Amino acid sequence: MAVEFLSAHCDALRALAKFPGVETFIVGLQLNIEVTAGLLGFPISPSAQRMWHALHIGISPTFYVVLNRPGDPPPYEFSAELFLQGW
Predict the structure, then answer these.
(1) Which helix H or strand E contains 82, and what residues bound it?
(2) In DSSP terms, which residues pair with 61 in a beta bridge?
(3) CA distance 65 to 39
(4) How far apart are CA 26 and CA 19, in angstroms?
């Protein structure tokens, strides 16, 4: 979903990154993980395709991880549709 968004909005995001006065351009990517008894760790690294799009646009990627216990609802619901309505 992130690569599709970056690709579809590349020109607008590049323009935003080069807008006068913009010194830092960060897009946060969030990973929700359900914590189970056997979980000892997890990797967090972007795919090469995601990094190419981010760097091509001029984004400094930032990654967030949310750990949830089984059965607990996430702290909030993310809706790509609602987010994209703002674009």
Answers:
(1) helix 80-85
(2) 27
(3) 14
(4) 14
First to last CA, the chain: 15
65, β-bridge pairs: 31
Cα 63 to Cα 29: distance, rounded to the nearest angstrom: 5
**Contact between 18 and 58 (Cβ < 8 Å):** yes
pLDDT, residue 21, reads: 92
Beta strands 26-34 and 60-68 are: parallel
Closest alpha carbon to 32 in 80, 68, 76: 68
Query: Strand, helix or coil at 22?
Result: coil
Whether pTM exceeds 0.85: no
Q: Tell me the pLDDT tens digit for each residue of 59-73.
A: 777 777 777 777 776
